[in-house]
Amino acid sequence: MKNENIEISVIMYVYNNGNCIKHAIESILSQTFPLFELIIINDASNDNSKNIIDSYDDRRIYIVNNNENIGKYKSINHGVDISKGKYIAIMEADIIAFPKRLQIQYDYLEKNRNVLAIGSSAENYDGNLKKSIPYSYEDILFSLLSDNKVFHSSLFVRIEKLRDVGNYNENFND
Q: Which of 45, 63, 67, 134 is geometrically suited to a Cys-Cys bond with 139, CB 3.0 to 4.6 A?
């Protein structure tokens, strides 16, 4: 992607997700929005994740293989540090993104310059709702008092704002 303008850096954290990572990668590679890079951080998986990741020959993919397991948020921060896009899209290896995910989120933040980050709902593979984000700003603020209602793998954020706060707190627990 050296000669293309990268608008979105998709960061995918992987740890022993060999049973589902192919579907997650394919769902990003088939996005309708073309100007992205996919940074896959393999956190020293000891299953077949690395073999599956290495089987892709796509110039949009940048692979980082950690020599030892350093944890999710430290790995994601490394992805943020090397990303080239003006937006970060978080993607986890056990999730399938809808084909227009990046386009819809990109368009929204481009039109709403005062919004720093957005997310969405998610569905389990069997169609059951996994998590849902409250719809109003007030509902979101109220919900944060008891539980974070934002589905992490749907996070789409302006990179400069994430960097302004020092990226992820690496002491978070999964």
A: 134
Residue 141 contacts residue 124 (beta carbons within 8 Å): no
For the stretch 46-91, pLDDT in tens is 999 999 999 999 999 999 999 999 999 899 999 999 999 999 999 9
Type of residue found at 83: S
Contact present, 40 and 63 (Cβ < 8 Å): yes
95 contacts 122 by C-beta, under 8 angstroms: yes
Looking up tokens 């940048």, which residue turns up? 62
Burial of 53 (0-12, 13-18, 19+ CB in 10 A): buried
Q: What is the pTM of this model?
A: 0.85
Could you tell me which residues are beta bridge partners of residue 131? 122
Which residue matches tokens 């393999």? Answer: 42
